[in-house]
Amino acid sequence: MKAFVLMIIGVCFPFATFAKEKSSDLQFDSLPYAFNALEPHIDAKTMEIHYTRHHRGYYDNLLNAMQDSSLKTKTLPQIFSQVSKLAPAIRNNAGGHYNHTLFWKVMSPKGGGAPEGMLAEKINATFGSFDKFKEEFKAAALSRFGSGWAWLCVGDDGSLFISSTPNQDNPLMDVSEKRGTPILGLDVWEHAYYLKYQNQRGSYIDAFWNVVNWPEVNARFISLVGNKKPPVKK
Ligand SMILES: [Fe+2]
Question: Which of 93, 112, 105, 92 lies closest to 41, judged by CA?
């Protein structure tokens, strides 16, 4: 019935919303630094293959999977919120595209150190200290069996939490055990580290801290919670 109604609308209003361009998060952004920029922590060959083959593959497959679909007018978070009802090709490739787009941006050749400002305060309040946070994050990344991601997320109530998802899932998906918006993500698929670190996932996680772009992560945190004032006590 729904398909029939959509068909009628399409015939009567051929230039209506169906003619919209794809949503703005369906772009394949340039890598914000050179392939070798994260050396020695992440090697140039891994970066090149990861970005040009793996990420590009998810992106191209996503566009193919969404061809002639009204999903093209939705944002990725909108798609994730109903992903359990969609084809596996959408779930895997939309996740792959979103996750990698975030991953490149939360790393920088000038990265490392510790977060500052609001995010630093929130991390200390939530996990006890930055070192405790790193320990918990590493444990989540290490214990992900097979392929997946470790995340630092902001919940709907502005809380911070660490989680891990399998494959190309992420915490925005309705299939995710813990739901929230990721502000930091670490790819723990073997394609992200095997050339340099082989089976030493722990060494790769330790090296990751040297390239984390904390100003970017802090900006993402503030954009989600910055305007939320604590409730006024009466
Ligand atoms: Fe990856």
Answer: 112
